[in-house]
Amino acid sequence: MILRWPKLTMSKVVVIGGFLVLGLLILPTQIKFLGPPWETVVQSVTKDLQVALGHFKVEYNRLPVIPDEQQTLRSDGLLLLSLLGEVSESDPRGIKFIDFNPAKDGRWGLTNLGKGNKPTQDTALVDHWGERYYIIIESTDDGLIPNPEYQGGANASLWHKPPPNIRASTLIYSAGPDHDPNTWDDNVRSWRRDGDS
Ligand SMILES: [Ca+2]
Predict the structure, then answer these.
(1) Average pLDDT of span 98-124
(2) Which of 27, 97, 114, 159 has CA 20 to 30 A from 10's CA?
(3) Structure confidence at residue 70 (pLDDT)
(4) How far is the CA of 179 from the centre of ligand 1 (A)?
């Protein structure tokens, strides 16, 4: 048996061409709708902050702030200003360890900037949902940080059991789209869920 391509009439060509044009019109809209994966972009900021803090420590053999044990810091104040190269007391060499764009509509960048977009005491770095990041610094010299997700194991499930400690020098996370740092399903963290940073 010989298979033949169906004969193309002018009307079929018009219909197929119409669908092709429609597809080309819809495709960019679909791609725009899918948009950038915000979780991935937000996680890259948490990792950038981690790297900047690491560079600060290599440069000065200390961190911009010394937190109390298990204290959770936020991406603002002395810590942020020092990384931005704005505090001569903690960063005498005036090194800019990290830089961010001004936030738009209170989201995704630096808020409360002063004249000429200069960082001020009130400046904060906010995530895609307008919240400051959470930062925990290892303070016991054993290379471990208590996992903020652990909650005594009470929130363990069949699929995910948060380890009690994470091996890292810093843990940084975003509260995610729901703005709540205690709901971990949508939190964006700098470390892997299985406990390695
Ligand atoms: Ca959350």
Answers:
(1) 97
(2) 27
(3) 72
(4) 6
Residue 63 lies in a domain: yes
CA of residue 57 to ligand 1 center, whole Å: 29
How far is the centre of ligand 1, averaged over its atoms, from the C-alpha of 174 (Å)?
A: 8
Report the domain count for the chain: 1
pLDDT surpasses 70 at 31: no
Per-residue burial over 33-67, b if 16 or more Cβ lie within 10 Å, else e, is: eeeeebbeebbebbebbbebbeebeeeeeebbbee
Tell me, in angstroms, the distance from the centre of ligand 1 to residue 188's CA: 8
What is the spatial distance between Cα 88 and Cα 43, in angstroms, rounded to a whole number? Answer: 29
Instruction: Give the Å distance between the CA of 94 and the centre of ligand 1.
Output: 35
- Residues 12 and 137: their CA atoms lie apart, in Å, by 66
| 173 Cα–ligand 1 center, Å | 10
191 within some domain? no
Tell me: the pLDDT tens digits for 124-170?
999 999 999 999 999 888 999 999 999 888 888 888 899 999 999 99
Give residue 78's domain range. 38-184
Write out pLDDT tens, residues 47-81.
999 999 999 999 999 999 988 777 899 999 999 99
